[in-house]
UniProtKB/TrEMBL annotation:
Its EC number is 4.2.1.1. PANTHER family: CARBONIC ANHYDRASE. Binds 1 zinc ion per subunit. This is carbonic anhydrase. The lineage of its organism: Bacteria, Pseudomonadati, Pseudomonadota, Betaproteobacteria, Rhodocyclales. The keyword Lyase applies. Zn(2+) binds at C40, D42, H96, C99. It catalyses: hydrogencarbonate + H(+) = CO2 + H2O. It comes from the Bacteria. Belongs to the beta-class carbonic anhydrase family.
Length: 202
């Protein structure tokens, strides 16, 4: 596989890069993305492919289950850089159905040490869904329940995102909009889960 990656890079240089040399030359000078994408690390959710965007258009942070954790210094730096230096006006948190991280909320491997700790920031999504189903007297099959948890997790992570004081200030000032999306691997479509658009400044 490693050899395939290097061969793929050669094909990229000989075709795409050569054809768009001027575009990549401009990219080498500076980046001006207009969206920060916080998504899952899942290899089946390639950001530029499913949104049909070009290099330089989306600033990307990915982790297991598209989590926004307050103690994640990596994400904190990404957010700070995005808002304070790149002046990105839109943040998208994108989950996806069939997420292994969400499935692991119910059945974490006994061999895992770090995954269960990381998923603590998503457990509230499962609790909310289960409480709602119990209150409504509904029972769903496992797949349907997990789909609801994926959706609820996106909403939960938006709450975590807006708990960052500098993110909330940017949103309140009308400089930032936040969006929650879910990607369906079976249809290839993105559905809007929640959105907080930019408020016009006075």
């Amino acid at each position: 596989m490693i050899r395939d990656l290097l061969e793929g890079n050669k094909r990229f240089v000989d075709t795409v890069f050569e054809r768009e040399r001027d575009y990549f030359a401009e990219l080498s000078k500076a980046q001006h993305p207009t969206v920060l994408w916080i998504g899952c690390s899942d290899s089946r959710v390639p950001v530029n492919t499913i949104t049909q965007t070009r290099p330089g258009e989306i600033f990307v942070h990915r982790n297991v289950a598209n989590i926004v954790a307050g103690a994640d210094w990596n994400l904190s730096a990404v957010l700070e850089f995005s808002i304070n230096h790149l002046n990105i006006p839109d943040i998208v948190i994108c989950g996806h159905y069939g997420c292994g991280g969400i499935q692991a909320l119910d059945a974490a491997s006994e061999h895992d040490q770090y995954v269960p700790i990381w998923l603590n920031s998503a457990r509230e999504a499962a609790h909310r869904v289960d409480a709602r189903l119990a209150a409504e007297g509904r029972q769903l099959d496992a797949d349907a329940r997990l789909r609801l948890i994926v959706e609820e997790n996106v909403s939960l992570q938006l709450e975590h995102l807006l708990a960052y004081p500098f993110v909330a200030r940017a949103a309140d000032a009308g400089k930032l909009a936040v969006h929650g999306w879910v990607y369906d691997m079976e249809s290839g479509r993105i559905q809007v889960q929640r959105s907080r658009p930019r408020r016009p400044t006075e």
